[in-house]
Amino acid sequence: MSDNFPHRIVVKLGTRVLTQDDGRLAQGRLEALVRDVAALVDAGRDVLLVSSGAVGLGRDAMGLPPGPSDLATRQACAAIGQGRLMGFYDNLFAMHGLCCAQVLLTQSDFENPQRYDNLCRTLTTLMRHRAVPIINENDVVATEELAYATPIDPDDDRTEGAAASAMRFGDNDQLASLLAANLGADLLVLLTDVDAVYTKNPNKHPDAEVIREWTVSTRVEAQQEAGAGRGGMSSKIRSATDAARAGCTTVIASGREPGTLKRILDAESVGTRFPAIRIGHQAVNGSTASQSEASASPQPSKTDSNP
User: Fold this and answer.
1) Which among 5, 59, 204, 250 is placed 20 to 30 Å from 37, CA to CA?
2) Mean pLDDT, all residues of the chain
């Protein structure tokens, strides 16, 4: 692998990637994704997995049908499903001589500067020891959107006691973006059940065009239903642009297609790429956007849906 190959990579796996249409675990798909991640770790790369799927697995274990449910039922499903999900990950990574670590986060982990600092140190230490963090919101106890604090620099006294900012996230797309930005990731991959971002919902509009590279002038009709998960395409676009502005190249692509992660890392044209944005005259992660472009904050319109 070349020196330009991403060193630290955050991969987000959505519920629809990890499960089949009937809500059962897509075990073959998960095995292939773990194999690709293990190859990256063996090559000396840091990889963090932000994984949905616990609630869906809990529903399956309880014999409940897929779909919306009340908060208490969702939390009960998460309590059952999280252990099952980690069991699958643990067994699969062990087949490649690796171990993984469960990291469940709540709002307070990001609001309290000391706990936030401890979180960053723990994740960094896990990766140093070739352990793969499996990160998820702690749905068993979390009932609100997660708020996060200004990034903490343990060597900078100015950040001591920093209060939580007004920025919030409430799904794993935004959680993955936050982690990628604050942990200095070079690449964020948001794997979902669609192959790319389109100008319109391709299921409703035959003239919808695929977008291979996002720019500050890109506009899409991007509202969509969240389906089995909580994050729709609007969330993914917002999360991708946030990560790109923080200097992390991001790709939205299908996790249901075999070999997608490897193809992205081989620089093939897969999914929709959000190039890392450059601040002023100093490039961040090889992007060529200007500071004025960085502040443009491209946003999807809200007139239609796009899966």
Assistant:
1) 59
2) 79
Quote the CA–CA distance of 252 and 270 in Å, as a whole number. Answer: 8
**CA-CA-CA-CA torsion sign (137, 23, 230, 206):** positive
| Six token digits for residue 158 | 């100015």
Q: Among 285, 267, 292, 258, which residue's Cα sits nearest to residue 31?
A: 258
What's the pLDDT at 217?
A: 77
Angle between helical axes of 71-94 and 27-42 (0-180°, round to 10): 50
The confidence score (pLDDT) of residue 187 equals 97
**Residue 169, token pair as written in the block:** 């996230």
Token readout for 248 is 């992390």
Is residue 37 within 8 A of residue 132, CB to CB? The reply is yes
Residue of 244, 182, 234 whose CA lies nearest to 213: 244
- Asked if 244 and 295 touch (Cβ cutoff 8 Å), the reply is no
Contact 2, 186 (CB under 8 A): no
DSSP designation for 27: H
- pLDDT of 117 strictly over 70: yes
Q: Is the pLDDT of residue 106 over 60?
A: yes
Q: Which domains does the chain have, with CATH numbers?
A: 8-104+130-146+167-305 (3.40.1160.10)
Q: How many other CB atoms sit within 10 Å of the CB of residue 87?
A: 11
**Orientation angle between helical segments 71-94 and 54-62, nearest 10 degrees:** 110
Do the Cβ atoms of 192 and 252 come closer than 8 Å? yes
Using the CB atoms, write b or e for 111-150: b if 16+ within 10 Å: bbbebbbebbeebeebbeeebbbbbbbbbbebeeebbbbe
* Burial of residue 95 (number of CB atoms within 10 Å: 0-12, 13-18, 19+): exposed
